[in-house]
Amino acid sequence: MNEAPLIYDLTFDELEKTLVGLGEPRFREGQIWHGLYRRLSDDPSSLTDLPSALRARLGLAFRFRAGEARATARSNDGSTEKVLLQLVDGAEIEAVLMRYEHRRTACISTQAGCAMGCVFCATGQMGFARNLTSGEIVAQVLHFARRLAAEGERLTNVVVMGMGEPFHNYEATMAAIDRLNDPEGLDFGARRFTISTVGLVPIMERFTNEDRQVNLAVSLHAATDDLRSRLLPINRRYPLGALLAACRAYVERTGRRLSFEWALIDDVNDTPQQAEALAALLKGLTCHVNLIPLNPTNLYAGKGSPRERAAAFRERLRSRGIACTVRVRRGIEIQAGCGQLATERRARAAIG
Ligand code: SAH
Ligand code: SF4
What we know:
This protein has helices at residues 12-21, 28-37, 52-61, 122-126, 134-150, 170-181, 201-209, 225-231, 240-254, 272-282, 307-319, 340-351, and strands spanning 67-74, 80-87, 92-99, 104-107, 111-113, 128-131, 157-160, 193-197, 215-219, 258-264, 287-293, 324-326.
């Protein structure tokens, strides 16, 4: 295992310090930064504006790859592709690229596994392995940016909705976004990121106070504390009252629209009672609810709501003035749901 530090873990200033330490002239860090984040090099030998001795030193001092692609899957229509990355210590994470008509969206992970234990989530079911470093988060975005560049295309959006709870690994997640944001590098605007959180209230407050341009989505999934606590154990610590107060503070302070995620589970949270409770909860809040029929997982018995029930839920919300859309989950056949490819591989490994 190559233990050298991952080059994407460095901020520009840290790279500069390292190079000064190596006795290199000052303009080198800019060349390297452009190589990594503009030309999207993942190999020191392709940094051709550097002297070959420095390229060799960089290759020894740093890793340029966060991991190896262990499995990839493409949806039948080719619009969605998923990669399972094995990191240097063997931890596995997933990243997904979705091609919409006008958008190219990467869905990235922030942790290997997740400690939040949401019962219907494949990542929650596998438990927590470790936090990703900022560089490991950055590398997933660069991976797809590179793939698209090879086809003459560009990444347009990043959703932090893969494995893990981003607000449980806040520093690294924000450091990654800042690094990708850098106008001297990839220059990927903060507004093109969406972070989804299960609702860690103190971190939501911190995020709100930082006045970032990044979009926020909250995984709600239930509108009463008893049901939400059963589905999302974190609700016992941060119940709906506290969560909605943090949501309202976010919208008030930032003036931004908040998104809510709601995985429609047949006969569990798609009832008229839940729709009414949800409408009451969100009354007067600038928000949009994304309704996504549940993607079934092995360790949870619930099923996605059938089309008519999803439509009825949507209509009830709309009649109460709540903006909402039923979305299709992309790439169901390639297990593009959160954590599902890694779980499948483990299950197969356990059997075979
Ligand atoms: N941990 C963060 C982000 C990752 S999960 C969060 O929970 O928000 C991204 C989204 O996928 C969340 O809204 C999550 O609740 C949802 N999700 C997880 N498992 C799902 C499943 N089996 N079917 C549909 N949505 C699911
Ligand atoms: Fe973690 Fe999000 Fe899955 Fe819950 S839904 S277990 S917070 S990844």
